[in-house]
């Protein structure tokens, strides 16, 4: 096998197939293994200005702006630590929401979060900020949501809780090609949440997450409308293999950043109460009675401002 040091394309020719081919002056052929590859052409270096195709929308900016937060995903992409994809026009392509990227790009430019007064896509922007891992932007969004929540006036929060025991059937692999049928009882929880403050439900969605297939997903995707949220989840089931949770669509509920699984209504009420009290809510003294608060099926909190 021979390798022409000047070429940049794969070569698999055997030695006797080079007959009649002469090397360029100053070049020589070196023997290699029977199959070899020449170095692939290197992609062009990043240079200003840079045009990005984000979900079909084009943005033009500088390399300095994109790498202004080195620990972010964008900082890694445009400093050469992560590969970048390109569209047919040679623009860097990112398969994310193009509309809200303008706010992320402006934050990279100014380190300041600027949103219109009637901005209605805070949840989407927060998810995009999480994807790009711009930590100062994530913190700025959290502060903004707290600020917006405090700006709201009186609000009510009503939670209806239901619980049932259900039998789940599943197979257990005992040996290669040997399976046995098993069953176990599991607790199934349901919470119907209504709040006149849609911002509070978004705040709740930033703390509570479903665990499915080993991944966490925000409960905000289950909002029926801006004021209603329905949650269904299960406690851990004894003996149930992890893959069966996914196969039978059994979701577990976690609270972050404590990374704590919610296996009972008592834990659920405790965690929701912490979030609600921090947002200015208090227990409605007329319903339920304070003594029975943790065991009641209907819980009401109010906020006066």
TrEMBL record:
<keyword id="KW-0341">Growth regulation</keyword>
<dbReference type="InterPro" id="IPR011333">
    <property type="entry name" value="SKP1/BTB/POZ_sf"/>
</dbReference>
<feature type="domain" description="BTB">
    <location>
        <begin position="48"/>
        <end position="117"/>
    </location>
</feature>
<dbReference type="InterPro" id="IPR000210">
    <property type="entry name" value="BTB/POZ_dom"/>
</dbReference>
<dbReference type="InterPro" id="IPR045763">
    <property type="entry name" value="KCTD11/21_C"/>
</dbReference>
<dbReference type="InterPro" id="IPR003131">
    <property type="entry name" value="T1-type_BTB"/>
</dbReference>
<dbReference type="Pfam" id="PF19329">
    <property type="entry name" value="KCTD11_21_C"/>
</dbReference>
<protein>
    <submittedName>
        <fullName>Potassium channel tetramerization domain containing 21</fullName>
    </submittedName>
</protein>
<dbReference type="GO" id="GO:0051260">
    <property type="term" value="P:protein homooligomerization"/>
</dbReference>
<dbReference type="GO" id="GO:0016567">
    <property type="term" value="P:protein ubiquitination"/>
</dbReference>
<dbReference type="Pfam" id="PF02214">
    <property type="entry name" value="BTB_2"/>
</dbReference>
<keyword id="KW-0833">Ubl conjugation pathway</keyword>
<comment type="pathway">
    <text>Protein modification; protein ubiquitination.</text>
</comment>
């Amino acid at each position: 096998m021979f390798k022409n040091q000047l070429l940049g394309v794969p070569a698999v020719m055997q030695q006797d197939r080079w007959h009649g081919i002469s090397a360029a002056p100053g070049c020589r052929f070196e023997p290699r293994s029977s199959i070899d590859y020449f170095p692939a052409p290197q992609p062009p270096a990043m240079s200003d200005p840079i045009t990005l195709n984000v979900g079909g929308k084009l943005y033009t900016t500088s390399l300095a702006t994109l790498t202004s937060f080195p620990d972010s995903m964008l900082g890694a992409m445009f400093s050469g630590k992560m590969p970048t994809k390109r569209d047919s026009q040679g623009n860097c392509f990112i398969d994310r929401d193009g509309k809200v990227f303008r706010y992320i790009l402006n934050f990279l430019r100014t380190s300041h979060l600027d949103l219109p007064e009637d901005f209605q896509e805070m949840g989407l922007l927060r998810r995009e900020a999480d994807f790009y891992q711009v930590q100062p932007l994530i913190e700025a969004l959290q502060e903004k949501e707290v600020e917006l929540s405090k700006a709201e006036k009186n609000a009510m929060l009503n939670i209806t809780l239901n619980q049932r025991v259900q039998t789940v059937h599943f197979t257990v692999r005992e040996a290669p090609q040997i399976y046995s049928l098993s069953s176990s009882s599991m607790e199934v929880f349901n919470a119907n949440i209504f709040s006149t403050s849609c911002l509070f439900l978004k705040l709740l969605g930033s703390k509570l997450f479903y665990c499915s297939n080993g991944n966490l997903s925000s409960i905000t995707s289950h909002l029926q409308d801006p004021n209603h949220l329905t949650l269904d989840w299960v406690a851990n089931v004894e003996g149930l293999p992890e893959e069966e949770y996914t196969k039978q669509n059994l979701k577990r509920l976690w609270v972050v950043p404590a990374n704590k699984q919610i296996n009972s209504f008592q834990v659920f009420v405790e965690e929701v109460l912490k979030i609600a009290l921090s947002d200015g809510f208090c227990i409605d003294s007329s319903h339920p009675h304070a003594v029975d608060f943790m065991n009641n099926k209907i819980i009401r909190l109010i906020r006066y401002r």
